[in-house]
Amino acid sequence: MTEWITTPIDMRIVRGALELERKARGVLPHRLPLAARVQFHDEYMARTEEQPSGVRLAFRTRATAVELDVLPTKRAYEGAPPQPDGLYELVVDGRPAGRGSVPGGNLAVIDMATQKAVTRPGEPGTLRFAGLAAEAKDVEIWLPQVESAELIALRADAPVEPVPDTGRPVWLHHGSSISHGSTAAGPTSTWPAVAAARGGADLVNLGFGGNAMLDPFTARAIRDTPADLISLKIGINVANADAMRLRAFGPAVHGFLDTVREGHPDTPLLLVSPILCPVQEHTPGPLALDPEGPGLRFRATGDPAEVASGRLTLTVIRDALAGIAARRAQDDPHLHYLDGRALYGEADYAELPLPDGVHPAPETHRLIGERFAALVFESEHGAFAAR
């Protein structure tokens, strides 16, 4: 009979979250602190920041079996097939060692047009990994990137302790659903997770699906979070929501960067423009579902003729970001710029098109992550090479 040892789930063994909220049964990881969460009343944003992309339990143990009790909240869209259960992935000493899902849980039924959700309560489930080697090892359990998880109990058949400091740099990344990894194969397959693993970095992923909007509360969260490396992938959500005009966009980017620099004056800071997205390259938003399909596809509904009056496209945004980075770099030697089309451009689109017109396929996440690591972490002139 297995003798289980229960370990408290707190920030000593949780990585990638900025805060843990005490709930009725356990703790809920948040990727924005309470000070930020009280400043938005948007259900979509609230649901997105609770989805623990990049969040994992990390500990050292000799255990051969580990269990995690979880109350997940899963998604379903009105009129659409059910979403697959989220994946939990086990990594042992830096290598993939298993994956699984937690049955049951709450179900949030979402109206795609309004992003309002009705949640049906459910019961917790248990994730179990067994057959591990009975030797000291570093274990990570990565939580699903698009399924929130109230963590109730962690059990193992040997003592669990926090992982000692590895000396790896903390890389904080902010971006859209592409960075969030909404279409990745699993939590370790989002492009930031791929890049962090290859670059030897400890990831904090503040990619928020549909919500990379230059929000001041996000800038303040980044300002106040310890980080050795910071990247900001900006633009695509602003365009596809038709949230700003060019006149407002430039000052908003400057303000966001100013706030980040208040807490990180000398930290390597990389500004990244959007990857190629043909439906938005020359046509302003907002995005809408394409009724002509096939399948779930998006199209931009704005008028290209209005670009002259300040409507934003990805082409306009890249030009603006490049100019902002060049001007600021004159006084900020630690600020760098990367054109997102170096990560995914026209040749890539021809070979690996975006299935819904906007989001990368799982294999494209790996391509983007490997490219980012090569250009930013590994290149002699990469923004994070001299970290």
Question: What's a concise summary of this model?
Answer:
The protein has 387 residues and is an alpha+beta fold. It is built from eleven helices and 21 strands.
Describe the structure.
It is a single chain. By secondary structure, this protein is of the alpha+beta class. The protein contains 11 helices and 21 strands. Strands 1, 6, 9, 10, 11 and 13 form a 6-stranded mixed beta sheet that branches. A hairpin with a 6-residue loop joins strand 9 (106-110) and strand 10. Helix 5 (216-223) runs parallel beside helix 7 and helix 7 crosses helix 9 (314-329). The longest helix has 18 residues, at 246-263. The model has no long low-confidence stretch (mean pLDDT 95).
